[in-house]
Amino acid sequence: FDVTLPNGLALQVAAVTPAHAPRFTAGYEHLSEHSRRMRFFGQISSLSSKQLEFLTKPDGRNHIAYAALNLANPAEPGVGVARAIRLDADSKIAELALTILDAYQHQGAGLLLHATVHAHAAAVGLEQFIYDVSAENTRFTQHLQALGAHKVSQDHDVVRLRLPVIGKPDQLTADT
Fold this sequence. Notes:
Helix content: 25-40%
Number of strands: 8
Largest sheet: 8 strands, mixed
Oligomer: single chain
Strand order of the largest sheet: 1-2-3-4-5-6-8-7
Distance between the termini: 27 Å
Order of helices and strands: EEHHHEEEHEHEE
């Protein structure tokens, strides 16, 4: 689907497919070291072919993934991606992760992708999400807590939170 954010940024949101692999490679290169550390909790120089294959072949039930592209600049790698991966095939719990390229952070694309994954997850029977968030990322932690997430644990520099799946995307707009 296409959507225009309040700041005028026109996006196309689509389920991730193998055709997105080159965009993932280019997008990873556009992430700052800080963003890589916040999302991946460490530094890897590039995505391996095995990682790309996994990231770009979600099945829509056990692995949900959506990407946002800037309609005004379709040659760009993209704006960001959100994914949820079920803990196991029978689980009602999945781990959710978001990555937004630095140039697009704090503009609403993350919220849009987050809501999209929540709506899809509700449709496939997921009931809860686990988020592993860098302890430095207090803004996202506070946002999740405003939505009703509770802290499960903190190990080293990673905070683990749990949030029920919110099936109605408009409920993900809690003020933080």
